[in-house]
Amino acid sequence: MELVEQQVNERIAKHLQKPLPIKQLIVGILLELVPISEQHIVEMQVWLEFVSYKLRSGEPTEDSILRGIHKVFAYLQQENLLKEEIVVQDEIDHLHAFIDGLALHVLMGFVAMDKKRLYCLIEKEIDKIIKA
User: Fold this and answer.
1) Nearest residue to 28 (alpha-carbon basis) of 84, 68, 82
2) What is the pTM of this model?
3) pLDDT at residue number 89
């Protein structure tokens, strides 16, 4: 599992080095958390096995996806980029569930592994929380 997290973190770090508009940057980072390639599928399968094992064994598990989403929101708050009317914790929970569900649905074949479409779906969610 550590190798999977390391690979994802390396890809995210590459995004952070790009001089992109904030929305593109965030969508690109979140896109790394859903299966958009064969490598992503393998990583997602490893992650699911790890989480399943933790649940069966009763061991507490730390959710690195949730941790990453918290970091995104902390940055957006710090830069005053969030819409005024949102409830931050509700939006964190919503985005976390959305990314997890999207990733699972892609893995199960319910949603096509189409990078452009997945980008657009994530972008729609980000548009709901950040200022225009």
Assistant:
1) 68
2) 0.86
3) 97
Nearest CA to 43 out of 12, 8, 11 is that of 8
**Where would I find the beta strands (DSSP E) of the chain?**
none
> Is-contact 115 36, C-beta < 8 A?
yes
CATH 1.10.357 correct for 2-127: yes
The secondary structure element, H or E, covering residue 119 is: helix 115-127
pLDDT at 6: 82
pLDDT band at 40 (very low <50, low <70, confident <90, very high): confident
Number of other CB atoms surrounding residue 62 within 10 Å:
7
Main-chain dihedrals φ then ψ at residue 130, nearest 5 degrees: -105, 155
12 versus 82: which is more confidently predicted? Answer: 82
Specify whether the CB–CB gap between 129 and 91 falls below 8 A: yes
